[in-house]
Design a protein that fits this description.
The structure holds 2 protein chains of 2 kinds. By secondary structure, chain A is an alpha/beta fold. Chain A has 10 helices and 16 strands. Chain B is globular, with a radius of gyration of 18 Å. Chain B starts with a helix and ends with a strand. Classes of the chains: A alpha/beta, B alpha/beta. Bound molecules: flavin-adenine dinucleotide, flavin mononucleotide and FE2/S2 (inorganic) cluster (FES).
């Protein structure tokens, strides 16, 4: 009998649609192995570049009413260092997707090449980080620059290229279409929403970097809207991300048109068991509603 | 239904503990030449377990992890800070009435047991052992507190320990590396003597990792379980960012207090390597 949770993003086959979101627990092979063993269908690494980065000073995280704000500043040991960490992950069936960033299209292509050499099953271009200048959201809101990056990366590697988009733009469908036109294999929506928090007692912004990215339940409606809009605008698969904490959130994203899901912040409040509870919940939902498999519900909300 | 409501309240308690609260310092007490105890009031901290830690915000400077060294049911809470760098130095210059920010308490603490227990603190690592010892006084049949420091000037909490242990079956052993107070040498050599002569039911420890690694090795040799509080670089404190991982374990959430069973699982890294600020594995 076929697996009702199996899904596919370009050539990438997943045993279930849940994935670890980029930047969360993605420094070492063993910590990502634990996430896979806890039920994730795939993992995405920390965003990595050519050179090591220490990231920003603390505080790098602030709790808000229904979300979390972070400004890590892309700390990472540099792509080459990651070879060792891949030894454990390359043995597993669930794929490891490398999140990568660069300061130029050439950088992106170079990092992508190394990522694939050391075992990336796909690369996810982080063109959407809201708090690091010159990389991230600045790139992801410039369609022509984004197209150049995607083309260069596509020319360099023969693995799927996923483009992770920022919601901090006027029209996310325009950016998604640019990515598709340049040859992207899939879209991931969304990265965090640019935000800040100020402490009334000390009258100071709390994050050392002042600005950060909002994640968690607060951004789920934004993410669902983005996936819904992008689904109508492109023909490539979409990975939904932003505020998924339970199976109901996951189903909402699937109905909006996502064929896979990334989970980040919920790990802090429910722990790594969230992957299993989300997949179990989706299975029950499918059974209860009489659907054979998740493909039956992807984008269903568009048929109304 | 029961399980569901339990889950909800658990979730909201982590979220509310993670809120940054600003607190006014009620007291700043000098413990020794580099170490101070800062006291403040916080209602969430009154439920903390010994061994749990706070992320302490020093506005304009940094946010750093610090263990609780005093936990009281009225919410009067303290941390004991050794000035080793920028953040800890600024923190220790704060005066009564000044403001700091706190998040937490986070992580898993020490679990008090019955029987004959050893409590081993290395340097400032003695801090979290104070609220632990307060609990052990109620449960253990014998408590041996061992404090290892470099020299006499670094000694901590001697009065507090004496007061705590005065009515129970106990022993206090101090070691200094230069022999200026108590036994000369490392605290682990005194532990070894104890283990050779007594049946010990649990060893609790916090201090420099090489010391704790040695404690763990001895404990394994003598078949005694350990609870050790580890230190790693921390950013989020809530098990999300991955800065603090050792093996598959997140020190901030699965620890900081780890059991022998967990320590065995991270034996390739415990006492050997850690992640630096870029996330790269480096030698200890
Ligand atoms: C769970 C835990 C409990 C701790 N409890 C205490 C305590 O009770 N009393 C006490 O004095 N110290 C404690 N520490 C250590 C304390 O966090 C560091 O000494 C402090 O962060 C140093 O900051 P600094 O800016 O003064 O020094 P720096 O000059 O910045 O650094 C000195 C050393 O501290 C490390 N350090 C700096 N920031 C962090 C951070 N965010 N996370 C982890 N390590 C860091 C550095 O890597 C370096 O090795 C604890 C650490 C952890 C992880
Ligand atoms: C602590 C933290 C670090 C993150 N780091 C990255 C990163 O390095 N690269 C990236 O593309 N996204 C990063 N993100 C964004 C997440 O991958 C995800 O897009 C976002 O958090 C929304 O999902 P969530 O609500 O499930 O967390 C980070 C998020 C968090 C909370
Ligand atoms: S400090 Fe972020 S995971 Fe432990």
């Amino acid at each position: 009998m076929s697996n009702p949770l199996a899904t596919q993003i370009a050539d990438l086959k997943l045993s279930n649609p849940t994935m670890l979101a980029a930047g969360v627990l993605g420094y070492t092979g063993l910590s990502m192995k634990r996430v896979i063993e806890s039920g994730a269908g795939a993992v995405v690494t920390k965003s990595m570049g050519l050179e090591p980065r220490t990231g920003y000073c603390n505080p790098t995280v602030v709790q808000t009413d229904c979300g979390l704000l972070n400004a890590m500043g892309l700390p990472n040991p540099g792509i080459s260092h990651f070879k060792e960490e891949m030894q454990e992950l390359n043995k597993l069936e669930a794929p490891t997707i490398f999140s990568i960033y660069g300061f130029s299209p050439e950088d992106f292509a170079e990092v992508a090449k190394i990522a694939v050499e050391i075992g990336a099953a796909a690369v996810e271009l982080n063109v959407s980080c809201p708090h690091v200048k010159k990389v991230g959201a600045q790139v992801g809101s410039d369609p022509s620059l984004l197209m150049e990056i995607v083309k260069r990366v596509q020319n360099q590697i023969d693995k799927p290229v996923i483009v992770k988009l920022t919601p901090n733009v006027t029209d996310i469908t325009e950016i998604a279409q640019a990515a598709q036109k340049a040859g992207a294999d899939a879209i991931c929506a969304i990265n965090t929403v640019k935000a800040m928090a100020i402490d009334p007692e000390t009258c100071k912004p709390i994050l050392a970097n002042k600005y950060g990215g909002l994640s968690g339940p607060a951004i789920k409606p934004v993410g669902v809207r983005c996936v819904y809009d992008i689904y109508d605008a492109v023909d490539i698969p979409i990975i939904g991300c932003g505020g998924i904490s339970n199976w109901q959130d996951a189903v909402e994203y699937l109905l909006a048109g996502a064929c896979a899901l990334q989970i980040g912040t919920a790990i802090a409040f429910q722990d790594i068991t969230v992957f299993k509870s989300v997949t179990d919940g989706i299975t029950n939902y499918l059974e209860h509603k009489g659907f054979n498999n998740i493909k039956d519900i992807i984008g269903l909300a568009h048929e109304m | 239904m029961q399980a569901h409501s339990h889950k909800c309240s658990h979730k909201s308690s982590i979220e509310s503990a993670n809120r940054m609260r600003t607190v006014e310092l009620l007291e700043v007490k000098e413990e020794n030449c580099t170490t101070k105890t800062l006291t403040f009031q916080d209602q969430i901290c009154k439920l903390a377990e010994p061994g749990q830690f706070l992320m302490v915000w020093i506005p304009g400077v940094d946010e750093i992890p610090i263990s609780l060294s005093g936990i009281r049911c009225d919410g009067v809470t303290s941390i004991t800070v050794n000035a080793v760098g920028d953040a800890t130095r600024v923190l220790n210059q704060k005066k009564k009435g000044e403001i700091i920010g706190i998040r937490g308490p986070f992580g898993k603490g020490f679990v008090p047991v019955k029987g004959n227990v050893m409590v081993i603190g290395g340097g400032t690592g003695l801090g979290p052992m104070m609220p632990l010892t307060e609990k052990l006084v109620e449960t253990a049949s014998k408590i041996t507190v061992m404090s290892g420091v470099k020299c006499q000037d670094n000694l901590l909490f001697l009065d507090r320990i004496a007061k705590l242990l005065c009515d129970v079956n106990s022993e206090t052993i101090c070691t200094t590396e230069d022999g200026s107070y108590g036994f000369e040498g490392l605290v682990t050599s005194q532990l070894e003597k104890k283990l050779a002569n007594e049946k010990v039911d649990m060893i609790y420890t916090c201090g420099p990792e090489p010391m704790m690694y040695h404690v763990f090795r001895l404990a394994e040799q003598y078949n005694v379980p350990v609870q050790a509080s580890l230190e790693r670089i921390m950013r989020c404190g809530i098990g999300l960012c991955g800065s603090c991982v050792i093996g598959e374990i997140r020190v901030c959430k699965d620890g900081p207090v780890l059991t022998s069973e967990q320590l065995r699982r991270i034996k390739d890294e415990f006492g050997k390597s850690r992640l630096d600020w870029t996330g790269k594995k480096v030698k200890q």
